[in-house]
Structures are given as C-alpha cells and as structure tokens.
Design brief:
The protein is of the alpha+beta class. The protein has three domains: about 70 residues, no CATH class; about 120 residues, Smr-associated-like (Immunoglobulin-like, Sandwich); about 120 residues, Ribosomal Protein S8, Chain: A, domain 1 (2-Layer Sandwich), CATH 3.30.1370. Helix content is about 25%, strand content about 30%. A hairpin with a 6-residue loop joins strand 13 and strand 14. It is elongated.
C-alpha cells in the first residue's frame, strides 16, 4: 500500500485515502467526513480502478429503483481527496544514466516547474502539468556526478476541481549526497518501476491539518536580552513572567547533532547552522546566569574553532575562554567562563 491509495474498511462501510504509513502494521486513513484515523493494515483493502468501472454501471441500473432520499444522500457525499503523494524518482537507464521523473500520486492537478541551482546560477529544467495519478519524465542525470548536481528546486500549484479548496503553492529544495541517495531504492508508485525514490511532501500538512495548526511562540535569547535592556532603561513593569530554559553546560556543535538533513547541506550551510547554534546557546547561558558553558566543535580543519574564538574575543559578558578538557577533547572543545 502507498500514500494516496483508496481503501475500504473490511468490517465497516467507510472508505478513505491513505495519508500516512505509520509503521509496518498501521496506516493513517482520511475518511469521507474529513477525519484522519489510524487503522491496521490488515483491516483495509485497496479499491482497484477496475472495481469502480465494473460496479459503476451496476449502481447506475440499481439507482432507478432506489429511494429518492438515498440518491440525494449519495449526491451530497463528498469524495475523499488524496492530499499527499508527490514524489521524484530516479529510474536507471544503465549503470550510470538515470531518468528523473516527477510523480503525482494525489487527486490534485499539479502545474509544476523544476529547476536547478548551481554556483548561484538558476537553470530552469522543465515546466508542465501533472494530472492526478500521473508522472512526467523531466531530466537525465549521471549518478557518478551526484556531488556536482547542485540543488534541485521543485515548485507546485494545487488545482482542485472537486472540493475547491485553497491551498498555498509548495516549494521543495533538495541537494543529494551519495551517502543517503543509494539508501532510497524502492518501487516507485504510479510508474511501478524500481528507482531511487524521494517523497517531496512527506512533512507537509494536509489542508485539514493546516487549519488546525497552532503557532507556538519561540523565544529568541538574543532578542530577549535586547528587550530586557530596553525595559530596564524605561523602568517599566512587566506583569507576564517569562521563564528562560537554560542551555546544557555542554553544547555539541557537530552537524550530525544539529540537523537530520546534514547530508543535503553544503559546507557553507553547515558552518552557518553551527555558528547560529553557538550564538543562541551562548546568549541563553548569559541570560540564564550560567557560570560556564562548553562548546564541542571538534578539530576538523579548525575553521569552526577559529570562528567561535573570533566571536568570543572581546565579548563584554565573557571573563575568559580556553581549550576544555584536553585529555577528553584534545583541541576539539572550548570552555567559556561568563562574568
């Protein structure tokens, strides 16, 4: 079973669309009432297109003998829409050449554009329209050059002729690395071929889910510190108490600890995330009143250590900094003593 498959419950009359594969035993199904429910895989059966074609004519003959109220209920019922299921698949032509397909396994019509960005230059590759449950061949790549592919940019619009729901455009950027690329081999939906498969909208909320999302405020330690100084100067009284959660006394800046998608990031993006994490934790430690904090940056080429020490040098809230626990980290960690 795949996301977007239409299914029927074995022990009830509900039908729906698979919106999520929870684990090896459970799937999430969106039923006609618009609710998402977890169901055992053994409790649902996929509805084949042939079934709808075969029984459609029988239902049409039977409808003339049914009660008018029943017919009106059938007409009023809304069909279930598969909202997720946008994939890209790299299908092998030979041991080197692969064809890039864009796959629409949803019930939407998707106008789309595929482009590539390399060395700050954008190159459009393909523009077209994907009907529901269809695919489009867009580009040829050589997998031996995977580290030179640059960033692929996929942009989609959602065209819905059934429910007439307004859904914002969807943009996904992907940089591929051999380490993760070759682990994604499986059979692609719609085209039914073995490929290196990636789902673009896996983390995107459906229309029903997006209406229920509550935005949780995020406290930025740097802005909070500036705000505290402003309030001190104005001598104003704040009724709302803000509780700051102190950071850990040891902060690991290795990229594997900061992002699950580090394999898709270039060196500049990695360094930017590491420095941002360092600055946020340093300011949080200052605001929270910590005495010391240790940053584990590793040895590497020394660039991250250099950038950290440059920002620590002359900082008004820092007493001193030094290499931390050389017997444990060597030159791969820095201890910061705060004033």
């Amino acid at each position: 079973m795949n996301i977007g498959d239409k299914v029927r419950m074995l022990h009830s009359s509900e039908e729906g669309i698979i919106t999520k594969l929870i684990d090896a035993f459970l799937v999430e199904v969106e039923i006609e009432e618009g609710f998402n429910i977890p169901v055992k895989r053994s409790e649902v059966v996929r509805i084949a297109k042939e079934e709808a074609q075969q029984f459609g004519s029988l239902l049409a003959k039977k409808s003339s003998n049914e009660d008018k109220s029943s017919i009106s209920k059938i007409r009023k019922s809304e069909p279930v829409i598969a909202q997720k299921g946008i994939y890209i698949a790299f299908v092998p032509v030979n041991d080197r050449q692969h064809t890039l397909y864009v796959i629409n396994n949803t019930d939407y019509t998707l106008p789309f554009v595929v482009g590539n960005e390399k060395e700050s230059k954008y190159l459009p590759l393909f523009a077209g329209k994907l009907d529901a449950r269809s695919h489009q061949r867009v580009y040829e790549v050589n997998i031996l050059d995977i580290n030179e592919w640059g960033v692929f940019i996929f942009q989609f619009l959602f065209f819905d002729l059934v429910k007439h729901q307004n859904r914002p455009p969807f943009i996904k950027k992907l940089r591929f690395r051999a380490k993760t690329f070759f682990k994604a081999q499986q059979k692609a939906p719609v085209i039914g071929k073995d490929a290196f498969l990636f789902q673009l909208d896996q983390d995107e909320p459906s229309t029903a889910e997006s209406e229920q999302i509550i935005q949780t405020p995020v406290i930025d330690p740097v802005k909070l510190k500036e705000k505290m100084y402003e309030n001190h100067e104005k001598a104003t009284t704040i009724d709302t108490k803000i509780v700051i959660k102190a950071p850990k006394i040891e902060v690991d800046l290795h990229i594997e600890e900061l992002s699950k998608e580090y394999a898709l990031m270039n060196s500049g993006e990695i360094l930017e995330l590491q420095i941002k994490t360092f600055e946020q934790n340093l300011e949080s430690a200052i605001v929270a009143g910590l005495r010391e904090i240790t940053f584990i940056h590793g040895v590497g080429n020394g660039k991250l250590r250099h950038e950290l020490h440059k920002r620590l040098s002359g900082h008004p809230d820092i007493d001193f900094y030094k290499d931390a626990q050389k017997e444990k980290f060597g030159y791969g960690a820095t201890l910061v003593r705060l004033k």
